[in-house]
Design a protein that fits this description.
Immunoglobulin-like; about 400 residues; 2 domains; TIM Barrel; six-stranded mixed beta sheet
Length: about 400
């Protein structure tokens, strides 16, 4: 199904209860090998939806190498919070997660870990549940090559209210505390919010999107197939090593509903216009130097899985500062909103050029776009049609003086 929806790579994950590491080792691994042989055009990573000590879940992606099978068993067997039986409270603490990250970073094949549905347990806007921006920063500090980011758009986007289901299981993303916004976690969707606050610390923190596909909506589940609704795009050569490097570097954009299938955001200073930085890169410019930003995107050219051809309504260029001030917010502003009359066509692509001044200190620029007319993504309501509420987000270009 991943191939039928245009994916070039996928991560096979699972999570479970006591002794799951042994089950994964014995039963899932042979299926991964069989699938790699059966679908050679797909890069299939072996991993897990890691049961985070002191928290919820994270996607764990193992490098494809000779040690991946045993490495996953060691990680999950040693640190999975639900691995022990009877349950061991000592395994389910936040300091234990830091120990897990140190152990992952010491492996010969260093994995990638991405926080799943970051604020699904939040009790309100900016009132965090099991995970906070400060905690994610601590993950990154403990193992910067392992803990590289979080989901911007969580899975379970096909959830619908049904008789007998609680509010969480009838809402997009299965978010039972504070809802998603335009299908994205509030940490990402709130302008100047948690993601921007993390970037304000000078941290390179990448957002991704996933299907979290447990049960398809046509079969009574809450999920789309991998690639059916959400996609994570990585600028990489078609091999597993470069895909993981691209994730670590932040050469990534995410989109829902097939709204676009190409996005290239670049920036350059007037003093060296040929030295253009792209998503994940760092651009060196003088304070206040004239800076050009180019946004190149390719809109949908065919119907998505809902049968419609979505259209981009507008694109936002966003800028933030690196302040190194702790907190859950960051002075971040909308630089410019581009409507269809402001982009030009070049072949299958549309292009926007914009001139602005470089910040007086370190900062970043990023881009988002939508099929809606909403200025800011609205809070999602149970039962709404996710296909009518599509967004894409770039990862930042980092700016230093």
């Amino acid at each position: 199904m991943a191939r039928s929806f245009g994916l070039d790579w996928i991560v096979a994950t699972d999570h479970g209860g006591p002794g799951h590491s042994a089950l994964n080792h014995a039963r899932a691994w042979p299926d991964v090998i069989a699938a790699r042989r059966a679908v050679p055009g797909l890069t299939l990573f072996y991993g897990a939806e890691f049961d985070v000590p002191g928290g919820e879940h994270a996607t764990l992606i193992l490098p494809i190498d000779a040690g991946e099978r045993d490495a996953l068993r060691r990680i999950e067997g040693s640190f999975g919070k639900r691995e022990a039986f009877p349950a061991d409270p000592a395994q389910n603490t936040k300091p234990r997660m830091i120990e897990a990250l140190h152990a992952m970073a010491a492996l010969p094949g260093v994995p990638v870990l991405i926080g799943n549905h970051p604020s699904r347990t939040a009790t309100g806007l900016g009132r965090w549940g099991m995970h906070t921006p400060t905690e994610y920063l601590a993950w990154h500090k403990a193992a910067p090559r392992v803990a590289i980011g979080m989901e911007g758009a969580p899975g379970h986007q096909a959830a619908r209210p049904k008789p007998g289901l609680d509010a969480a299981h009838g809402s997009r993303g299965l978010y039972g505390g504070f809802p998603t916004m335009g299908g994205y976690d509030q940490m990402v969707a709130t302008l100047g919010g948690a993601w921007d606050a993390m970037l304000a610390q000078g941290v390179h923190w990448t957002i991704t999107a996933s299907s979290d596909s447990h049960g398809h909506w046509r079969e009574g589940g809450a999920d789309f197939w991998p690639g059916e609704y959400t996609k994570t795009w990585v600028w990489a050569a078609p091999n597993s090593t470069d895909i993981l490097d691209g994730l670590r570097a932040g050469r990534v954009f995410v989109a829902t509903g097939g709204l676009i299938d190409r996005l290239d955001v670049t920036a350059a200073g007037a003093k060296a216009p040929s030295r253009r930085a792209a998503a994940g890169d760092t651009l060196m410019v003088a304070p206040g130097e004239a800076m050009s930003v180019t946004i190149r995107f390719r809109p949908a050219r065919a119907a998505n899985a809902s049968g419609a051809v979505p259209k981009v309504d507008h694109i936002d260029l966003i800028a933030g500062s690196v302040t190194h001030q702790p907190g859950d917010h960051n002075p971040t502003h909308l630089v410019h909103r581009f409507g269809a009359g402001e982009w030009r066509r070049e072949g299958d692509d549309y292009v926007v050029d914009y001139s602005m001044s470089a910040p007086q200190a370190a900062g970043y620029v990023r881009v988002r776009g939508t099929s809606t007319r909403e200025g800011e993504p609205a809070v999602d309501t149970p039962g709404e049609d996710p296909w009518q509420d599509l967004w894409f987000y770039s990862n930042p270009i980092y700016i230093r003086n």
